[in-house]
Amino acid sequence: MSTITFAFSIFCGWLIFDFVKHRKFTKESVASSLVIAIVAGLFWWILDWIF
User: Fold this and answer.
1) Is 24 helix (H, G, I), strand (E, B) or coil?
2) If 0-12 CB within 10 Å is exposed, 13-18 middle and 19+ buried, where does residue 23 land?
3) Most Cβ neighbours (<10 Å): which of 8, 19, 41, 47?
4) What pLDDT digit, counting tens, does each position of 1-51 carry?
């Protein structure tokens, strides 16, 4: 459950960062935020699994 929460918070944070930077939501910014969240979630899950 912590992995999903972490990935969701990364997604929201990255989306807000892109919005502040470009002053609008685009499909590209949402897609890049989603990809980053998935990668971060997988990395967090691997770290949780190892430790």
Assistant:
1) coil
2) exposed
3) 41
4) 889 999 999 999 999 999 998 888 889 999 999 999 999 999 999 999 998
Unique residue bearing structure tokens 């990255």: 14
Both tokens of 41, joined, read 């979630």
Give the number of domains in the chain: 1
Q: Which domain holds residue 11?
A: 2-50
Q: Could you say which DSSP state residue 23 is in?
A: S
Cα–Cα distance between 21 and 32 in angstroms, integer? 14
Distances (CA, A) of 46 to 12, 17, 49: 21, 26, 5
